[in-house]
Design goal:
- This is Threonine synthase.
- Its cofactor is pyridoxal 5'-phosphate.
- One of its GO terms (biological process) is L-threonine catabolic process.
- Belongs to the threonine synthase family.
- It is an enzyme of class 4 (lyase).
- This protein has 352 residues and is α/β, with parallel strands linked by helices.
- It is 42% helix and 14% strand.
- The strands form two sheets. Strands 1-2-10-7-8-9 form a six-stranded mixed β-sheet, with helices on both faces. It has a four-stranded parallel β-sheet with strand order 5-4-3-6, with helices on both faces.
- Helix 4 runs parallel beside helix 5.
- The radius of gyration is 20 Å and the shape is globular.
- It starts with 6 loop residues before the first helix and ends with a helix.
- Bound molecules: ligand F0G.
- The site of ligand F0G has 22 residues, from helix 4, helix 9 and helix 13.
């Protein structure tokens, strides 16, 4: 749309807002659904693949969808401060939207396990960032207690308004495709987003906007895959720090999504995540952060089970620039360095 007003304005009838809700927005949403022909070619059999590039949101991740709702509702309820635990993206989004609302943001992060782009964002947006000696699950525990004991509103995905905002990504997909895809592939950490997408697909289906519901395929990093094993993991580990989570807060919801959609949870190794991360950049021209590439790594893993001619959407949750360290670590060896400033030499490297 030429005059995009943000997702609350666009999807107002589907959201728990009224005229009294002060809309706090950075004009998030309306992200591109990009045809992914190189991915589709690896599957063949007429399968159509799209990536939902939510890394193009204002703070660079899908969290903006949840945060425009959570912060608008917190403001409506008179909150003056918000708090979240985060592997990075939630903290950046909370910080930005809280700032626009004139609220204070506190964020608690696992020390040493947040990608530098996200950390810098949260600090620059003016949040109070507290790095604790513990993982995300520990951080979520402490912010839950803080929000119960002090006048700060919790804006993690246990806040129901977060999922309300995030469900709009499913609306956008159906609005573009004219129906739901046959499969949705999505990275899963705290399991809020998969639950939100399912809610969105179900609501649109109920209102007659789509004739089918997708099979929800959730992918977790192999070292942080409690929904695959069925057991919380005390020490989750993966280079995809965004989804380095051992005990997802939305566990029950995610299991219900799997069951009602006929979906699955499958693990992808860090090696598979990195291969997909590079493939997306080098073959599709789409740069996402490692955790996001788990959706494509997962699709590659189960590709032989995709029905002929099916449509598949892979969700790319965050922008590649969020995690410059991973980007540099996995690209710098390609740099032609130490080259003299000489026409023939440079042309020679160019292959002329
Ligand atoms: N992808 C990215 C880039 C994320 O940042 C997250 C979660 C997920 C996927 C998983 O989504 O938790 O709804 O299953 N990041 C949270 C954060 C935990 O703090 O930024 P989920």
């Amino acid at each position: 749309a030429n005059n995009w007003q943000g997702l609350i304005q666009t999807y107002r009838p589907y959201l728990p807002v009224s005229e009294n809700t002060p809309v706090v927005t950075l004009l998030e949403g309306n992200t591109p659904l990009i045809p992914a022909r190189a991915i589709a070619a690896k599957i063949g059999r007429g399968v159509k693949v799209y990536v939902k590039y939510d890394g193009l949101n204002p703070t660079g991740s899908f969290k903006d969808r949840g945060m425009t709702m959570a912060i608008s509702k917190a403001k409506e309820e008179g909150a003056t401060a918000v708090i979240c635990a985060s592997t990075g993206n939630t903290s950046a989004a909370a910080a930005a939207y809280a700032k626009r609302a004139g609220m204070k943001a506190f964020v608690v992060i696992p020390d040493g396990y947040v990608a530098l782009g996200k950390l810098a964002q949260a600090l620059l947006y003016g949040a109070e960032v507290i790095a604790v000696d513990g993982n995300f699950d520990d951080a979520l525990n402490i912010v839950r207690q803080l929000s119960e004991n002090y006048p700060v509103t919790l804006v993690n995905s246990v806040n129901p308004y977060r999922l309300q905002g995030q469900k709009t990504a499913a609306f956008e997909i159906v609005d573009v495709l004219g129906n739901a895809p046959d499969w949705l592939c999505i990275p899963v950490g705290n399991a809020g987003n998969i639950s939100a997408y399912w809610m969105g697909f179900c609501e649109y289906h109920t209102s007659g906007k789509s004739s089918r519901l997708p099979k929800m395929m959730g992918f977790q990093a192999a070292g942080a895959a409690p929904l695959v094993s069925g057991e919380p993991i005390a020490n989750p580990d993966t280079l995809a720090t965004a989804i380095r989570i051992g005990n997802p807060a939305n566990w029950q919801k995610a299991v219900a999504v799997k069951e009602s959609s006929g979906g699955e949870f499958n693990p992808v190794t860090d090696g598979e995540i990195l291969d997909a991360y590079r493939f997306l950049a080098s073959e599709e021209g789409v740069f996402c952060e490692p955790a996001s590439a788990a959706s494509v790594a997962g699709l590659f893993k189960v590709k032989d089970r995709v029905p002929d001619n099916a449509s598949v959407v892979c969700v790319l949750t965050g922008n590649g620039l969020k995690d410059p360290t991973s980007a540099v670590d996995h690209s710098l060896n390609e740099l032609k360095q130490g080259i003299p400033l000489n026409l023939e030499k440079v042309a020679g490297i160019m292959g002329f």
